Amino acid sequence: MKWTYRIPNKLGTSLLLMVVLALVLVNNLRERSNSKQLETAFESIYADRLMAESYILSLSEQLHQIQELLETSPADKDKALEQNLSEIDRINLLYLDTKLTEDEERHFDHFETLTWEITKSLREGKHKRAISDIDAALRDLHLLSEIQVSEAQSLLTKTAQIFRSGSLISQFEIGLVILIGLMVQGMLFASKSLQVREKQVPENLN
Fold first, then answer.
1. What is the pLDDT along the chain (206 residues), one digit of tens a residue?
2. 3-state helix, strand and coil shares in percent for the chain, rounded to the nearest 5
3. CATH T-level topology, domain 9-182
4. CB within 8 Å of 69: residues ≥ 6 apart
5. Among residues 33, 78, 176, 198, which one has the fewest Cβ atoms lying within 10 Å of its Cβ?
6. Spatial distance between the Cα atoms of 108 and 151, rounded to a whole number of angstroms
7. Where are the alpha helices (DSSP H) in 73-101?
8. Cα-flanking dihedrals φ and ψ of residue 8, to 5°?
9. Model's pTM, two decimal places?
10. Which residue ranges run through the membrane (predicted)?
11. What burial class does residue 9 get, using C-beta atoms within 10 Å of its C-beta: 0-12 exposed, 13-18 middle, 19+ buried?
């Protein structure tokens, strides 16, 4: 602890306080950055993954309804088919508003092309061709659903890493604050010791 006698008390305390202030500032900036990253990740999980999965489910339901209409041929089949096709177009536009990965965009472009072909075939009365395209479209939806799960897991892993890094830095900060506290105590103790020694030195009576 000899170093405590070599550092002027005021200067040493000031330096340590500057370190604490710098630490607080850096920590504040890091927390803001982490909060922004977490907010973005959670928003993406909801808007780009959960909502996209709900669109996929709705599209699948519409295609299955078309299959059922073609198998049962009810009296109002044409009107019902047009409603299903219109709903598919509406959902497709909603899906395009989500953030798409390269693979997702490729599969969805193929799916969208199939829905156009399905619409064309149904309006021309080519039901067998439409049924074949519906089967292919459902396979695309299955692949798109798998992408949603994979991307959501990736985002969750990212958030977990942010939490872990924040915990490690917090532990480091606590350790550093404790160390700084011990250093301040050491300097204060050294200052008191010096004051006591000065009082013990006898005055020159010459």
1. 444 444 455 566 666 667 766 776 776 677 666 666 666 666 666 667 888 889 999 999 999 999 999 988 777 888 999 999 999 999 999 999 988 889 999 999 999 999 999 999 998 989 999 999 999 999 999 999 999 888 877 777 777 666 666 666 666 666 666 766 666 666 666 555 544 454 554 555 44
2. 90, 0, 10
3. Four Helix Bundle (Hemerythrin (Met), subunit A) (1.20.120)
4. 77, 80, 81, 84
5. 198
6. 15
7. 77-96
8. -55, 140
9. 0.62
10. 168-190
11. middle
Block residue for tokens 């699948």: 60
The tokens for 136 are 């292919």
Tokens of 58: 């709705």
Token representation of residue 56:
């996929």
Question: What tokens appear for 47 in the block?
Answer: 């808007």
